[in-house]
Every structure is written in structure tokens, then in C-alpha cells.
Amino acid sequence: MRLNAWLARAGVASRRKADELIKAGRVTVNGEVGQLNTFVQKTDEVSLDGEPLAKQGLAYVLLHKPAGVVTTASDPQGRRTVVDLVDHPSRVVPVGRLDADTTGALLLTNDGELSHHLAHPKYEVDKVYEVETWTQPNDAELERLRTGVQLDDGPTSPADARRLAGARIELTIHEGRNRQVKRMFEAVGHRVKALHRSRYGPLTVEGLEPGQWRELEPSEVERLRLATTRDSPPPRREPGRAGSEPA
After folding, report:
1. Which residue of the set 19, 49, 75, 99 is catalytic?
2. 231 catalytic per annotation
3. CB neighbours of residue 202 within 10 Å
4. Residues 76 and 39 grouped into a single domain
5. Please, which residues have CB within 8 angstroms of residue 56's CB and are 6 or more apart in sequence?
6. How many distinct structural domains can be found in the chain?
7. What is the rounded distance in angstroms from the CA atom of residue 206 to the CA atom of residue 227?
8. Residue 192: which domain range?
9. Ramachandran region, residue 143 (left: φ > 0; alpha: ψ -120 to 50; beta: rest)
10. Statement to judge: residues 31 and 114 lie in one domain
11. Could you say which residues of the chain have pLDDT below 50?
12. Can you point out the beta strands (E) in the chain?
């Protein structure tokens, strides 16, 4: 594991801030000053300012994201973040992104490999949204969502769309482009009034009030892993590198 990722897993700092610590010569690996390209093995001893550090174990948290909270580890504007809501001893970061006004299921973890796989469209992990629009889409417009619509960054993959009631639609997609759900509805002539992610892969927020979180059961982590094991996986990336979620 690269040194900056190791420091992030240890809960010391984000990878970007870890890079600054490394550049300042404050981090050593087996007594030698670490470099940006240093890789850390399981038996290596890493220290910060001469104090030994221990790598944290893997952690998996499901948050019912409320409205008005930004999906990031830190915000330069001082807004409340999803990480602020999760009082966990391990440093976990969100998998993907939900807009500030979007609510629902959000996974946070320090498992970089799983995080990347979940965000990769190759594995077609379901993301289910309850969408309320200002005006009611007709059946032809829902069919356009099902077959895929053209966005400014290319056509979307086919989606599942079903009417819940009037202007309330359930949309299931597998991609993770920036503001994808909202842009898909705009492409068929409708603005989104409210957006809630009801399910992420096998995970739902049932039993969680907005702002509440819980740790995943081992069986849930295993189901997430099984959802991302088809064919050969893409190269490993650390959490926080995944693209924006489609809310």
C-alpha cells in the first residue's frame, strides 16, 4: 500500500494532507524518511514525528444521509459533512457522492478496493432512487429513461423506471456520473423536486432516521463483495477517488 494511503487508513489525515506530511519529512518507515512513492508492507513500522502509528482495521458504515449535508470528508466552506455525522473510531470516507439536498443510503468505508469496485459501472451495482418531479412524466418519457438518454457527457445506460404515484418515480441505475438522476430527468423535460436513494446495492436505510448510522453486519459486507466479483476487477484505488454519485 502506498504510504499516503496507509496514513489515511491509520486515521492520520486525508491522502492529500498525508502527502504534505511526507513532503515535510515527518513520516518514517522503518526509521527511514518516507517518500511519496514509498510502499508500506504489513511488517513495516511507520512513525509520525517519531511516534509509531498503527493501521486501523477495515470499517463499513451505512448512513441515512439527511438533506443539507455535503458528501465529503471536509468542506472548505465550513458546511456540515457526512463524516461529521459519523462518530466512528476509524477514519471512513463516503463511497461516491450525493448532492447536499439528496437524502438516503450512503456507504462510508476505509476499504479502498471495495470502494472502487462499488463505484465502477462494470459491476452494475444497483442504485435505487425515489424521484419526485415538479411535473408528471408520461409513459413515453419513462420509456426514454429505460432505454437511455443523451447527456452532455454521453448516453446513459438503460435504467429501470416505474411509476410509484403521479410524479413520483422509482429509478434504478448502475452508473455514477455527477448529478446523473437529475440530468436524466431534465433530458426528458422534468426538473427534480426531491430525491432520495432508497437502496445502494443490498443496503437500505430501513430502521435508520435521517442522520443516523450503523455499522454493517459481516453478511452485508460479504454481499457487497459478491456484487463486485464478476470477471476480472479493475485496478485498485483508495476511497475518495471514486467519481461523483448520480444524485
Report:
1. 99
2. no
3. 15
4. no
5. 9, 10, 11, 89, 90, 91, 110
6. 2
7. 20
8. 56-247
9. alpha
10. no
11. 232-243
12. 27-29, 32-33, 46-48, 51-53, 60-65, 93-94, 103-109, 127-133, 150-151, 154-155, 160-165, 168-173, 192-200, 203-204, 213-215
Same domain, 69 and 39: no
Rg (CA), the chain: 20
Strand ordering across the sheet containing 27-29: 32-33, 27-29, 46-48, 51-53
Is the CB of residue 212 less than 8 Å from the CB of residue 146?
A: no
Query: Beta strand 192-200 with 127-133: parallel, antiparallel or unpaired?
Result: antiparallel
Statement to judge: residues 122 and 162 lie in one domain: yes
Residues comprising the chain, all counted: 247
116 contacts 242 by C-beta, under 8 angstroms: yes
% the chain with pLDDT above 90: 66
The predicted pLDDT at position 234 comes to 45
Q: What is the pLDDT of residue 169?
A: 98
Cell 496507509, located at residue: 6
Q: Which cell numbers hold the place of 30?
A: 522503518
Residues 109, 186, single domain; the answer is: yes
The DSSP symbol for 121 reads: G
How far is CA 187 from its chain centroid?
A: 25
The CATH number assigned to the domain holding 158 equals: 3.30.2350.10
Whole-angstrom distance, CA of residue 238 vs CA of residue 226:
19
**Set of cell numbers at residue 78:** 465550513
**Does 15 share its domain with 65?**
no
Can you tell me the distance from the alpha carbon of 135 to that of 114, in angstroms, rounded to the nearest whole number?
38
Q: What percentage of the chain exceeds 70 in pLDDT?
A: 93
**232 in the same domain as 205:** yes
